[in-house]
Design goal:
- The chain has a single domain (10-177), classed as Cathepsin B, Chain A (Alpha-Beta Complex), CATH 3.90.70.
- It contains 7 helices and 6 strands.
- It has helices spanning 15-31, 38-43, 49-52, 55-71, 85-94, 107-110, 158-163; strands at 74-82, 99-105, 120-131, 134-143, 149-151, 168-177.
- A 6-stranded antiparallel β-sheet has the order 1-6-2-3-4-5, with helices on both faces.
- Strand 4 (134-143) and strand 5 (149-151) form a beta hairpin.
- It is globular and about 40 Å long.
Length: 178
């Protein structure tokens, strides 16, 4: 399965979990450790309110499931942080596709008029494109809120939306495959 065929699940109540599940699939696919079906059933837990309702719940789920993910072939590390948006975007970009982030955001600021009132989060990844023999890496966002999807280029309001949520984020990185 290629990264381009991966879809983020849409949700109104578990944006942090859906964004994290998407990033785990994406990082696993890049490392060659993603097996659709088996891992998808496992990652569905993140799209429940109990495990994916906010980034704190996602961090607890990840801590309890990291060894199981590794046994399934996904050697993915994670860390909850409170870093400025620019620093996180630089870190994700420097990973050349082997890093990602789930930013906690204010949906009202990021998408005014969309009716987002509760917890909201977006996944940030680095994509490579090759045009005319020149390789370019660029950051792209994935928003699990219904009707949003892919955010490319990243919206200018991302910094303010992330700042309003105290710069909280969940960083994910691939450290190999099995």
């Amino acid at each position: 399965m290629t990264q381009a065929s991966l879809e983020i699940e849409t949700t109104r109540i578990t944006c942090a979990g859906a964004a994290t599940a998407f990033m785990v699939r994406r990082l696993g696919a890049l490392a060659g450790g993603y097996a659709p079906g088996v891992q998808d059933q496992f990652l569905r837990e993140l799209v429940t309110e109990a495990d994916g309702g906010d980034v704190g719940r996602v961090a607890r789920w990840f801590a309890s499931r990291a060894a199981h993910l590794a046994r399934l072939g996904n050697r993915i590390g994670a860390r909850m942080v409170a870093f400025r948006t620019a620093a996180i975007l630089d870190w994700v970009g420097d990973g050349q596709g082997h890093r990602g982030a789930v930013l906690v955001t204010s949906g009202e600021v990021l998408h005014p008029g969309a009716g987002i009132r509760g917890p909201h989060a977006v996944a940030i990844a680095c994509e490579s494109t090759k045009r005319l023999g020149i390789r370019r890496d660029g950051l792209v966002g994935f928003d699990p809120w219904p009707g949003m999807g892919r955010l490319s280029p990243l919206p200018p309001a991302l910094e303010e939306a992330h700042r309003r949520c105290l710069h909280r984020a969940f960083l994910l990185y691939s450290y190999g495959w099995s």
